[in-house]
Amino acid sequence: MNDNTYKIDQNSSGEASSSGGADRSGLEPQEKPSCAPCFNNTEDPNVGCDEDEPVQSFLELVYGVLFEPVKTLKKAARRPPLANALLLVTILGLAGVLMWLLTISRVLNQAAEPSAMVPLPSTAPLLVLGAVLIFLWGYIKWFSYSAFISLAAEMLGGLGSARNVAAVVGLSLIPTILMIPAQMLNYYLASAAFICTTILVVWIWVAALMVIGVREVHRLSTGRALLAVLSPVLVLAVFTGLLLAGLVAVAVSIFSGMNLPGYF
């Protein structure tokens, strides 16, 4: 009798344990905790929350920067399209070289004989050298300006990286494409006011895009982002002012000790 009772208890406990195991195995998997917002990541605020976001294509970037700049540059700040930015800078550099060659050729043709339709052969090596230097200068300006802006933004409390800044700065140059048809149109108009106005409008547009991009990359206010974007110009202006002041001081000190004609 006792043996039978023990077997019944053992079977019931086994069934309970098996049912408990079934319950445990039948539990639905818990959802993974969602990642924290990007701005809570102090190490890199632009990484971690949108890894599955699709990368924008080149044409999408061009359209977005021209017509939806805030939305497009926000995405670019989170996932910097550095390759597309490099491609864009290359295209703009080639276009700039082409326009420079056309302008120089026109100037040389006007300076040469009326029958000359092409530049003189002796100027060809100089034109090639100038084209190469102008093309390389586009990359130098892009990298150096991006690095300077990123450094200034970090000094102002930014949390982004120079790589992201280089991407948004490259994308911000998209409006300069409009300079090509403007220069071609100016060949027929020959209006200095038209080309100067176009240059001013385009570069104000570019500066505004850079402010938006730096603001999104470094999580700065608009005022600090504007200060970071203008920092290279401000530093250059201060350096130029100090240089001119030094030259004036040297000139005054030199001429004040000389017995110039007419002064006794």
From TrEMBL:
It comes from the Bacteria. The keyword Ribonucleoprotein does not apply. Keywords: Membrane, Transmembrane, Transmembrane helix. Its main location: membrane. Residues 64-241 form the Yip1 domain. It is found in: Membrane. It is a multi-pass membrane protein. InterPro entries: Yip1_dom. Residues 12-24 have a biased composition (Low complexity). The chain crosses the membrane at residues 82-102, 122-140, 161-182, 188-214, 226-255. GO terms for cellular component: membrane. Residues 1-39 are annotated as: Disordered. Residues 1-11 have a biased composition (Polar residues). This is Yip1 domain protein. It comes from Pelotomaculum schinkii.
